[in-house]
């Protein structure tokens, strides 16, 4: 086709050229009248593009957004324009008929010469009454039900407002919790408490420096004779906690019945370390447990030393110590600062230079308790005394947890994608961590 035939195309699409109602085979599609603003642009645009390119596609919706057409016309050998107009008119008439009856219509056809294809789909998105679709298509004018539209708009707006209010309430709740953060909360560790209980009075009276820690141990033995997490059984956790508590009680010669019960648990369960997942091993276990075993033997606690699993633990301890040479651990902060307890041959004059500002050694009560035993350092004492008072005799395995909490908060808010709601709080957390303004 050449461009000079374009006027003829549009003459085919004039109102007088559209089939009248009498030409339709059904009453529902017979309303394809001569004043249809929906169909004229569709046919005109289709035929115009087919003439120029041989391929035409079109998509539209009614004004309420409920009706879609996705139509593709592919001219294989470009037959006469009159055939395109005729086929298009029949296709859209058939669409109107099926939409009225079902609400959903799809259609595919070719002209008799096999040159023209339509693949059309009409889908009701929100499914209003079918009659509305037929009216939209048959009369060529949008049927607008203003009360229904207003009602839909009100309901939609109400849902949006409700959602915004819910988000606001949750944001304010989180902000309130962030504002109340102090030095954090964490569960008490029987192992660390036992090391604190071992500290002798720094003034030389020969009595426990922290008797409330010793009392905590006596009050928190589990029915099976062990100490540790009562909710979840982990062999590493139960055995090192139990051994530490038995050592503390035996060292001060108190509660022999509890010591005996704890020893029975150790003898019956120490072999379970072999089957334990090493990923469940507490921090520094491979260093702290061998040191604790040596202390236990010095106070005549009968701990089996020929178990293959114990030999494996000793080997892991030796390997870790070779990775961090003694001269390095005395000069720069390393992870060993968290597990100093029981280690022999330490240069405390150098190690005290690596002490944290709060008096702890890498925020570890057990490591700091051992340092206090060895040095009588006043900063170590203040740190431990604060922890003991806060937790009524028991102490956690990390104290304080303020750094962890502040960093964790920032990380979680960022990962959840809601940090935009908490920019002032995030800045405050970062400033807190970087400024070192902790007690």
Describe the overall structure:
This protein is α+β, with helices and mostly antiparallel strands. It has helices at 6-12, 39-53, 81-102, 130-139, 146-179, 190-197, 211-219, 235-251, 256-269, 285-298, 308-323, 326-329, 348-351, 365-375, 378-390, 402-415, 423-435, and strands at 55-61, 67-75, 104-110, 116-124. It has a 4-stranded antiparallel beta sheet with strand order 1-2-4-3. Helix 3 packs antiparallel against helix 4 and helix 14 (365-375) crosses helix 15. The protein is elongated, with a radius of gyration of 41 Å. It starts with 5 loop residues before the first helix and ends with a helix.
Give the key terms.
about 450 residues; alpha+beta; Glycosyltransferase; 2 domains; four-stranded antiparallel β-sheet; 17 helices; about 50% helix
Question: Concise description?
Answer:
The chain has 439 residues and is of the alpha+beta class.
Would you spell out the secondary-structure blueprint of this structure?
Layout: H1 6-12, H2 39-53, E1 55-61, E2 67-75, H3 81-102, E3 104-110, E4 116-124, H4 130-139, H5 146-179, H6 190-197, H7 211-219, H8 235-251, H9 256-269, H10 285-298, H11 308-323, H12 326-329, H13 348-351, H14 365-375, H15 378-390, H16 402-415, H17 423-435
Helix pairs in contact: 2-3, 3-4, 6-7, 6-8, 6-14, 8-9, 8-10, 10-11, 14-15, 16-17
């Amino acid at each position: 086709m050449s461009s000079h035939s374009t006027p003829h195309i549009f003459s085919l699409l004039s109102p007088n050229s559209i089939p009248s109602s009498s030409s339709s085979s059904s009453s529902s599609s017979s309303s394809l009248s001569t004043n249809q603003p929906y169909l004229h642009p569709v046919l005109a645009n289709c035929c115009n593009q087919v003439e120029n390119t041989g391929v035409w596609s079109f998509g539209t919706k009614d004004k309420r957004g409920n009706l879609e057409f996705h139509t593709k016309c592919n001219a294989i050998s470009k037959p006469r324009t009159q055939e395109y107009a005729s086929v298009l008119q029949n296709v859209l008439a058939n669409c109107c008929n099926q939409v009225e009856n079902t609400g959903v219509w799809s259609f595919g056809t070719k002209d008799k010469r096999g040159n023209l294809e339509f693949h059309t789909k009409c889908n009701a998105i929100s499914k209003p009454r079918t009659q509305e679709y037929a009216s939209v298509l048959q009369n060529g004018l949008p049927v607008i039900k203003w009360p229904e539209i207003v009602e839909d708009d009100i309901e939609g707006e109400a849902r949006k407002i409700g959602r915004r209010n819910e988000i606001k309430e949750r944001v304010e709740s989180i902000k309130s919790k962030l504002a109340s953060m102090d030095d954090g909360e964490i569960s008490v560790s029987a192992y660390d408490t036992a090391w604190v209980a071992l500290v002798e009075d720094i003034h030389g009276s020969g009595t426990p420096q922290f008797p409330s820690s010793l009392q905590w141990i006596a009050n928190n033995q589990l029915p099976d004779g062990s100490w540790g997490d009562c909710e979840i059984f982990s062999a590493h956790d139960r055995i090192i906690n139990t051994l530490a508590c038995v050592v503390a009680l035996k060292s001060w010669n108190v509660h022999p019945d509890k010591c005996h019960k704890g020893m029975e648990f150790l003898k019956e369960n120490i072999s379970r370390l072999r089957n334990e997942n090493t990923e469940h091993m507490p921090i520094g276990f491979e260093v702290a447990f061998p040191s604790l075993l040596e202390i236990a033997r010095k106070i005549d606690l009968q701990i089996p030393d020929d178990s293959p699993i114990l030999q494996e633990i000793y080997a892991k301890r030796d390997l870790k110590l070779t990775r961090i040479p003694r001269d390095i651990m005395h000069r720069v902060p390393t992870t060993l600062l968290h597990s100093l307890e029981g280690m022999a041959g330490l240069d405390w004059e150098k190690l005290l230079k690596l002490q944290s500002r709060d008096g702890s050694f890498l925020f570890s009560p057990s490591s700091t308790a051992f340092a206090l035993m060895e040095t009588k350092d006043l900063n170590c004492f203040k740190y431990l005394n604060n922890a003991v008072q806060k937790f009524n005799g028991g102490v956690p395995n990390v104290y304080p947890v303020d750094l962890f909490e502040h960093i964790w908060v920032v990380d979680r808010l960022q990962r959840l994608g809601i940090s935009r709601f908490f920019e002032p709080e995030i800045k405050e957390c970062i400033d807190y961590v970087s400024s070192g303004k902790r007690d």
